[in-house]
């Protein structure tokens, strides 16, 4: 069979792979997204139990590539966030007004965001969506990559991108190893209906076994992400709905009144992972294929979308200046741009996790003092808020 010449093959059409495809839609680069399965959401009280907090800076990026109109009426603005420590009195509240924004971010169901991205991909003339499909073989040559799909078709491209998640097949084909650390925890997710309306406030309570987040969804529902040590997570998953509701009520406290209703639960193992190489000649890894973090700050997919935007920008510039888009020079520019952000977020998450799960006697006092200090330090607090919402990062230029 004759090989077809394309520009970019993206393996994995999750939120990150699709974001890259959308960002490339006006570049003229012929892009093929290979996704192994249609995503089928797991519903919990009629809503996808997988949600993402998309911070304000990432939302700006999604606006920039035309996704926002497809999300109209389907997102919940996060107007404020309250974080507190179960072990002590320390607590802190972040308000969007403090950084002159209407929202710190938006809560979006993963399947809703994926569908919005897919709608844009379907309208893009230069993007091909191959699903269900998998790459059977990949061979790196000097001038291009040879890709064979499971239907026998062959693609030749100057660049292949791995956006195929934490267990990336492409990463292992390239022989790239990872630094990996399992937290020995799982994140339990579910949709719940509390007695009182959330008013757009996201809550995060740090328990000795891990953080419990109660995130506002559109309507009067909330999504929980309850990270707990494996044994505790097992116990919680085995409880019947009434017993789980009681355990949740006890762990979260009375902020939103009673937990009236709880939907189906699912649990995901949590780990932190970093690929030892983000780029190689004719290969770039983005999203969870390149890095995975603890979901306690809800930043994983945000980091991935930022990778996608920066890579798209570099590829568009390279094409304009007639550079080889798969060359290490071009790909290294994206890596150099992204690594400080990735390492800062990963380092921050590790430190938070250790500080909040430590049973070292002084740790609770340190957390308490830290939260009080941050709460009273106006300029420092807004700096932290601008960083954590991604607003301090430059927005990519118009990608075309
Ligand atoms: C409990 C929990 C809560 C979270 N909450 C948040 C949050 O609030 N905010 C946030 O920013 N992040 C959050 N995250 C992290 C976030 O979910 C991930 O960072 C994000 O899903 C990564 O997206 P991705 O597209 O890189 O990878 P994935 O979502 O893993 O997508 C990979 C895609 O590649 C496809 N694929 C895999 N292998 C192949 C192959 N060989 N061929 C073709 N296709 C393939 C898969 O089918 C999939 O569609 C959370 C994570 C967890 C576990």
Which structural traits does this protein have?
400 residues, 6-stranded mixed beta sheet, 10 helices, binds flavin-adenine dinucleotide
Mind sketching the topology for me?
Blueprint: E1 4-5, E2 8-11, H1 15-23, E3 31-34, E4 43-44, E5 47-48, E6 51-55, H2 56-64, E7 76-78, E8 80-85, E9 91-95, E10 105-109, H3 110-123, E11 127-130, E12 135-140, E13 145-149, E14 154-157, E15 159-162, H4 169-173, E16 178-194, E17 201-207, E18 210-216, E19 222-229, H5 230-238, H6 241-252, E20 259-262, E21 266-275, E22 279-280, E23 283-285, E24 291-292, H7 300-320, H8 328-357, H9 363-376, H10 378-388
Parallel strand pairs: 1-14, 2-3, 2-15, 3-11, 8-17, 15-23
Antiparallel strand pairs: 4-5, 6-10, 7-10, 8-9, 12-13, 13-14, 16-19, 16-20, 16-21, 17-18, 18-19, 21-24, 22-23
Helix pairs in contact: 1-3, 1-7, 7-8
Bound molecules: flavin-adenine dinucleotide (FAD).
Flavin-adenine dinucleotide is lined by residues 11-17, 34-37, 52-53, 134-135, 163-165, 169, 187, 189, 225, 268, 287-288, 295, 298-302, 304.
Structural notes for this entry:
With 400 residues, the chain is an alpha+beta fold. The protein has a domain of 226 residues: FAD/NAD(P)-binding domain, CATH 3.50.50. 34% of the residues lie in helices and 30% in strands. It contains 10 helices and 24 strands. Strands 8, 9, 16, 17, 18, 19, 20, 21 and 24 form a 9-stranded mixed beta sheet that branches. β13 and β14 form a beta hairpin. The longest helix has 30 residues. The protein is globular. Bound molecules: flavin-adenine dinucleotide.
């Amino acid at each position: 069979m004759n090989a077809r010449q394309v520009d970019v093959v993206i393996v994995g059409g999750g939120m990150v792979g699709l974001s890259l495809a959308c960002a490339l839609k006006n570049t003229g680069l012929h892009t093929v997204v290979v996704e192994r399965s249609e995503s089928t959401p797991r519903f919990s009280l009629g809503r996808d139990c997988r949600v993402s907090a998309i911070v304000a800076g990432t939302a700006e990026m999604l606006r920039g590539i035309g996704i926002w109109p497809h999300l109209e009426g389907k997102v919940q603005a996060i107007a404020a966030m309250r974080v507190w420590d179960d072990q002590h009195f320390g607590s802190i509240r972040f308000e969007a007004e403090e950084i002159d924004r209407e929202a710190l971010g938006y809560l979006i169901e993963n399947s809703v965001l994926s569908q919005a991205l897919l709608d844009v991909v379907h309208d893009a003339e230069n993007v091909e969506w191959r699903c269900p499909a998998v790459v059977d073989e990949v061979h790196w040559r000097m001038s291009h990559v040879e890709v064979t799909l499971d239907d026998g078709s062959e693609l030749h491209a100057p660049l292949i991108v791995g956006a195929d998640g934490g267990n990336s097949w492409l990463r292992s084909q390239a022989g790239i190893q990872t630094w990996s650390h399992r937290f020995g925890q799982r994140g339990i997710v579910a949709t719940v209906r509390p007695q009182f309306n959330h008013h757009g406030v996201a809550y995060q309570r740090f328990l000795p076994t891990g953080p419990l987040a109660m995130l506002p969804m559109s309507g009067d529902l909330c999504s929980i992400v309850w990270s707990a040590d494996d044994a505790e997570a097992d116990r919680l998953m085995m409880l019947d709905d009434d017993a789980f509701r009681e355990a949740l009520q006890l762990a979260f406290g009375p902020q939103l009144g009673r937990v009236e209703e709880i939907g189906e639960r699912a649990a995901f193992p949590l780990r932190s992972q970093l690929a030892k190489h983000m780029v190689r000649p004719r290969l770039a890894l983005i999203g969870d294929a390149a890095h995975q973090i603890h979901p306690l700050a809800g930043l994983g997919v945000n980091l991935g979308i930022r990778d996608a935007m920066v890579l798209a920008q570099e590829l568009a510039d390279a094409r304009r200046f007639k550079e080889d888009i798969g060359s290490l020079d071009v790909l290294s520019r994206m890596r150099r741009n992204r690594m400080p952000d990735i390492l800062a977020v990963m380092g921050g998450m590790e430190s938070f996790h250790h500080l909040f799960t430590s049973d070292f006697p002084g740790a609770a006092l340190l957390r308490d003092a830290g939260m009080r200090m941050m709460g009273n330090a106006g300029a420092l607090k807004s700096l932290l808020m601008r960083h954590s919402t991604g607003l301090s990062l430059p927005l990519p230029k118009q990608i075309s």
